[in-house]
Structure formats: C-alpha cells, structure tokens
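sorry for the late reply, my laptop died twice this morning and i had to redo everyting from scratch. anyway the thing you sent over, i finally got around to it. pasting the sequence first so we're on the same page, its 508 residues, then the predicted structure underneath. double check i copied it right bc i was rushing
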Amino acid sequence: MAAIEELPSSIPQPSSKEKVFPSIDDMMEKGLGRFGWLEVMQCILVSFASFFDAQQSFLTIYTEEYPTWHCTNSTLCNSDSNICNIPKSSWSWDGPSHKTVISQWSLECASSFVTGLPQSSFFIGCLFGSILLATLADTSLGRKNTLVMSCLSMSIFSILIVFSTNIWIYSAFKFVIGFLRSSIGTCVLVLLTEKVSTEWRFTVGIFEFVCFLLGYMSLPGVAYVNRFNSWRLVYVWTSVPAICYSVLAYIFVTESPRWLLMQGRHQEAMAMLTGVSSLESGNDLTVALIEAPVNKQKASIFQLYSSIAELFGIGWALKRVVAVMVLGIGIGMVYFGMPLAVGNLGFDIYLAAVINALMEIPACVATYFLENCKRKPSILVFSVASGVCCIMCVVVGSGIQEIRVGLAMTSFFCACTAFNVFLIYILELFPTSVRNTTTSLVRQAVVFGNIFTPFLISIGRKNDIYSYGVFGVVIMLSCFTLLGLPETRGLAFSDTMDQQEKKDDMSG
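ok and here's the structure:
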C-alpha cells in the first residue's frame, strides 16, 4: 500500500480547478448562434447574387426563341407550311426581325447543332470556369472576393455580347459569360452556410433558392416589356443592375469566419464572431482560435489548387465526390432542362415561363419543411417523382395540352425540391477546407450534363422522347448513387478532412 501511496511527484495529478477549454467546433457554433437583423441583411445581400445568376442561366428562353410567323402570300404559303420549303418572300415574322438571334440571323432552318450551340457554349463555359475558379474561393481569394469578381465580370460581358454580329461570336460570348458566372451559386451557398450555426444552416440555404426564384420570375416581365425590341436590350436590362449590385456587395458583404480561421486570420475571425454574439468568455474564444487548424498554403500557381489534391488523395472522399457528381448530373439535367424546354410545350412562352417559375415557390416551402427530414430519402423521393412525370409527358404527348403542361410543371417542382435539398446535403458531406471545391465539382457535373440539354431540346421539338424521355431516365438512374452516401441530418460542420473522417466514424 505504501508503494501505491508514494507516487512520484513528476506524474501530473488531475485538478478539479483545471480549466477545460471548449473545442473550436463548439466555439464556432456558439459564436455564430445569433441570427438577428444584421445577419438577415447579410444573408439577403449575399443571396441576391443568385438573382442575377438565374437571369443569365435562363435568358436564352427569350433571346434564342423561335418566333412565330405568318404567311404573306397565300398562294405559296399556308399555316401548315414548312418555312424551310417555301420562298422567303412568302412569309414574315410576327414581330420585328431583330427580336431574337434566330430571326435576326435567319437561323430558322439551321441545324440543331447551330441553334443549340449558344446555350451549350454557356454550359461548357460553366464547366471550365468551375474547374479553374472553384478552388480560388477555398485558397487565395476567399468566398466574398470570388463572388464579387464573378458577378461583376459576368455582367460586363453580358453587356458586351450586344456587339455580336453572328451566331459564332454570340456563342463565344456565351462561353465567357458561363465561365465567369460558374462560381456564383457555389460561393453564395457556401458563404451563407458558413456564416451561421448548424441550427440556421438549412434556413439560410432557402435565401439563395428564393433569390434564384425571383431572378427566374423576373425574366418573363423583362422579356415581355421588350417583346417589340431587340434581344440586345434584354441583356442590357439584366446586366446594369448586376453591376450596381457587385459594387454594393464589395462594400457591405463580410467574409466567412470559417474561411478566415482556416487561413490563420484569427483576429478577423474573432472580431466577426464576437460581433454577432455575446459570448460568455472572450478567453475561451481566443484559446479555441489559437488552437484551430490553419491552412498554411501559399498562393502560388501550383498551390492554388491544392484542395483538389487533398480531396482526391483520400479514398472515402473521392468515392463521395464521384457519387454526388453522378447524382448532380441527373438532378441538374431536369432542373435546368425543363425551364429551357418550355418552348416545346406549344404554350404561350411568357405564361409558361411564369407558371414554371411559380413552381419554385412551393419547392422552397417544401425544402423548408424538409429541414428535419433525412436528406437521402428526401432527395430520392422527389427525384424519382420528377423522372416519372417527365416520362409521362412523353406518353401523353401533345394530345391533351393541359395535362402535358401540368406534368411538366410537376416534374420541375419535384426537381427543384430535390436540387435544393441536394445542395444543402453536399455542404454537410465535406469539411470547410474543401467545401467550396467539392460544391464546385458537383456543379461542374450539373453543367456537364446540361451541355447536351440544348441539343436534346432542339431535337425534342419533333419528338419528346429525346428531351423529356431522356431527362426522366437520367434522373432516376442517378439516384442509385445515394446508396453509397452517409446521412448528414443534424451534424455540425467539420473544418478539416481529419475532423470529417472522425465525425463520420462516430456517426456511422
């Protein structure tokens, strides 16, 4: 007993008075827990970039529309005539010949490749932009600067596109615009969710979806006001406000505290955290920040994309990225394809676009109520429902117009809801150090699938199976990748790959 009682003095003894500091995750959650008017205004200001992103994404519905026409010579032309088989002098456009790029450059009889090239070029630009710009937000530029740079440059080139003289130059400008806007959606969503605690993460994600919806809904009004003007004015009307927004965002938007922390900018991160909440102890936060992991990457040309190497160098992360990219192809094809294909419904294009856009409202409401539901079943149910409605559009055909339009709108609603939950799900699957990169990679997959969408829509004007049929099959097949992904509902964000792996092991 004496040997046990006489312990060496060098062995530290536990003390009940010893201070146990909270982890960085606990302090971040506590520091970002408040959600007052200041935080709401920040979320609205950040989210409004999605308003202009939506306008550029769906502008082609009107600028590249096939205008209606009428006969001017009844002996050579009638309502059932194919304008490609009758003399140009026997028919005329219903509106001005400069209303869309199709009528201005006489592309009414051009191949599906030529007519689908501008929007396809836009998506190709998005793909390359996601590859080259994605990790800048994780490394040197940060979330805020990347967002402002993308929105401003996109808007400038959207004005310059009005100087196009043919479809080839126009398509080149569309490529550049797609390239520059590629990081907007990613930066908005990542910046929003990194500014708040887990409790508010799903709620602020709705902000982006609502602003994207408002941007989409504004297009029919802008296009209708300019229905007797050139397509060039539509670009000007949507670009000038975006430039003004970029200036305001640069002045008033604040950076992500999590990104500042990963860059070793502890004082800035602490100032933001103490500025949005009343913490019980400033010393606790200071110690947590000092002990936080730091991303010590230098901003050299070889190290800017180190987050991709970090992501692909770990087996579980690579498998996870591949799975969500495949899922993104399926959901994204319907999410972007259905609005772009409204011209194929044989319905008034302004009214059809409004109804289609209105479907995003119940989708946002549904997304809000799905906050406490598991992510995987939610995505699966709405994706399969969307695919079934797409295939039903092919079965119904043009026989009963009202049913066909209803099925198309229902499919879009389901795809919107699945896409909204999917975007939140991606953020929860990966840590802060690679979150912007992985979200961008998934968006690359989305735009990769949509590179082919304009051609499918163009061919689908004659046969729905090449548009709606393909959309339905692809989205349903992509859902099989959910089987290899974990559930993330209710889990706090991780900041490093090690933290994410430990958290997955504990929850799994």
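DSSP finds 25 helices and two strands in the chain.
thats about all i looked at so far, will dig more tmrw
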